[in-house]
Amino acid sequence: MTRKQKIIQCAINTNIIDDNLTAIGIMDLDRLKQTVKDAYDAFPENFYHTFAVKANALVSVLKSLREYGMGAEVASPGELLIALKAGYSHDSIIFDSPAKTMADLRTCIKYGISLNIDNLQELARIDALMLEFPETKSVIGFRVNPQIGSGKISSTSTATATSKFGYALADGNNKQKLIEIYKARPWLKSIHTHTGSQGCELTLMASGVYSITALAEEINSYIGHQQVVRLDIGGGLPVNFISEEVSPTFKEYADVLSEKVPLLFTNKYQVKTEFGRAIAAKNGVIVTRVEYTKNSGGRHIATTHAGAQILTRTAFLPKSWPLRVTGFLPCGEEKTSIQSEVIPTDVAGPCCFAGDLICVDQQLPKLEANDYVMVHDTGGYYFSNHFDYNSLPRIGVYAVSGDDDALIIKCIRKADTVEDVLAKMEYRE
Known about the structure:
Elements: H1 3-13, E1 23-28, H2 29-42, E2 47-52, H3 59-67, E3 71-74, H4 77-85, E4 93-95, H5 102-111, E5 114-117, H6 120-132, E6 140-145, E7 167-168, H7 174-184, E8 188-192, H8 202-223, E9 230-232, H9 250-260, E10 270-275, H10 277-280, E11 284-296, E12 299-304, H11 312-316, E13 325-328, E14 342-348, E15 357-365, E16 372-375, E17 396-401, E18 408-413, H12 418-424
Parallel strand pairs: 1-17, 2-3, 2-10, 3-4, 4-5, 5-6, 6-7, 6-8, 8-9, 9-10, 12-14
Antiparallel strand pairs: 1-11, 11-12, 11-16, 13-16, 14-15, 17-18
């Protein structure tokens, strides 16, 4: 029996998921810890890894990641507050939003939170703030768009010619202008790019990192000393959603970077990463109960309580974000072809639109009412997604740890049942 099978059996047999709590998210903290270790083992000591908070903004998960040695990358004021609540120090946080308000910028510079500048208008605001806080400990740099092209998923590609993110390096005379900007501002000590995301090849990501490394060298040479001391190479390492295999690995990415940008591995620069999905995704699952089943047009349909309110990306962009599912009996035993016939199945969610589907026309052992479905690789951008806060009931989240034979499951976010919500509502005629 696999660790995942033991986890779901434990959750069912201890009545964590039942008739009232019909969908839960589970994070495997031991596996999460191993993933962070894999990241650190793959790179030399001048690399420091931060976690993209948007990938899993649960305070308990972030606390664990902090204990495992990761910093925090935030992209909104809310994420900053969550990171601070999880115990991150100011100097372990980096703020990356492309829409920072003056208040956001003031907070960062006043308290020594690092940040990446998105555009020249933001630079003008920071120029004013640096007069007010000349001794800030914030490490500040530009986010650069190397404009090197798109990956397979256009909506998550951040280095296209017209990307909304960062300073367009290849437009006109922008490169020389940026070099002059750095020379005039000794407090600009970092350069950032985020070239990759799901659907991007490792070689494309490495090309973006090469661009900012070459730019840092050119800036330092032009100034006459090493003013740029940090390279923030972003995250975006793709995740394999079609099997249990972890691919690509952090080691594979490090090998590509080492070949393309060997200077990163010489200790000349501090290198920061901002991995999110690659850290969290494969260490979390969603478990939901099958409420009803039926046949329509020759297709078997299993209706569950996990859909667009939790699995938002998959429901709206199923070809870009496919997910694997596994069926389980009410007792927690995995359903196999030995127990029931394998038939074309749609696993549906509870929302009232036709696209609310976890998977379509998948060959699965026949699901029945009161069975359970495990949705794999959902530890990032799914059950911690903010859309879930508008769902009824709100999904409960649990952390699992311990040896396979002595699993410990602990609630880290309580779910409101329908009865809880109704009890809080105030009705008026």
